Amino acid sequence: MPALDVVTITGCKLRYLPLGLVHHATALRVLNLRNAPHLISVENFPSLVELTSADNPKLQRISNSPRLRHIVVIRCPGLKVVKDLQSLRSVIWKDLDADALPEYLRETELNKLDVYCSLRLLKLISLQDGSYEWEKIQHVQLLKAYGKRSTEDKVDRHIFYTKDPYSFEADMGEDL
User: Fold this and answer.
1) pLDDT tens digit string along 115-173?
2) Half-sphere exposure of 153 (CA within 13 A, CB side)
3) What is the pTM (predicted TM-score) of this model?
4) Could you tell me the residue ranges of all domains in the chain?
5) What are the phi and psi torsion angles at 135 (to 5°)?
6) How many Cα atoms within 13 Å fall on the side-chain side of residue 31?
7) If you ran DSSP here, which 8-state letter would residue 27 be given?
8) Cα–Cα distances in Å, from 158 out to 19, 51, 96, 174?
């Protein structure tokens, strides 16, 4: 396993990733976890650079991976803790069913955040008025947020925000 650099796990029933993977896959740079309905945490990967977690509803924690730079989180409503990721700079977050942005975004020092959310949540973000949702992400250098009614929705609704130099553009689509 020392030469393993990409792992994809799909349809797994494990609650925790095997310790052998954590300790012996010392060159692991990319980890893709999809449809692991019982998975609780992703922790202690010293060489991991990119993580994708999709449809893992019980995932609660991503932590202690010092080289992790990029995370993709798709429909993981249980994820509450994202910490001890000193190199994290980019997050893509997708959940059309979520009522709010995840709280862990408030504590991350991100250069780039892409959000794919419901129209209702996009409208809350667009208020940019010190609202609870805006407070979670206003520190991000570059934000791109897209609002959809469903995955098939083709109407362009977006927010593009740059912190420095300041720029804010919101387009809620022609039907709003």
Assistant:
1) 999 999 999 999 887 678 999 999 999 999 999 888 788 888 999 999 999 999 999 87
2) 19
3) 0.93
4) 1-65, 89-176
5) -60, -30
6) 26
7) T
8) 41, 25, 14, 12
